Amino acid sequence: MRILIAEDDYVNRRFLFKFFSQYGDCDMVVNGEEAVQAFMFSLEESDPYGLICLDIMMPKLDGLKALKVITSIEKEKEISDNEISKKFVITALDNAKDVQNAFEMGCEVYVTKPINTEKLIEVMKKLKLDTE
């Protein structure tokens, strides 16, 4: 599986990379604009991401806006439900409006920081991507 990690904090990005590398090939970007570009490039290569992790608070384009753009591209290209990327957001914010917005835009799991291995294992179980 191909995995995209969009996180502007270096420590969190490296932690996510180390964890998700056991599940597939990981690409890392530092903002929402790069996430959208990487997503579009993966479609052009016919090698789309199976999992996309977006931090909400990032420079240039935040994770929710990037999520909205990525979801709209999938709809525009009529990507079938079983081939749509699994998406989840990570954030230090924990307010109901952001959670609701994330789910309305195609997010499947919402994780609050601080992140740790146990939380990420739960993400993989909720997304039905765990290897157990």
From TrEMBL:
The modification 4-aspartylphosphate is found at residue 55. May play the central regulatory role in sporulation. It may be an element of the effector pathway responsible for the activation of sporulation genes in response to nutritional stress. Spo0A may act in concert with spo0H (a sigma factor) to control the expression of some genes that are critical to the sporulation process. Residues 2-128 form the Response regulatory domain. Keywords: Phosphoprotein, Two-component regulatory system. The keyword Ligase does not apply. GO terms for biological process: phosphorelay signal transduction system. This is Stage 0 sporulation protein A homolog. SMART domains: REC (SM00448). Pfam families: Response_reg.
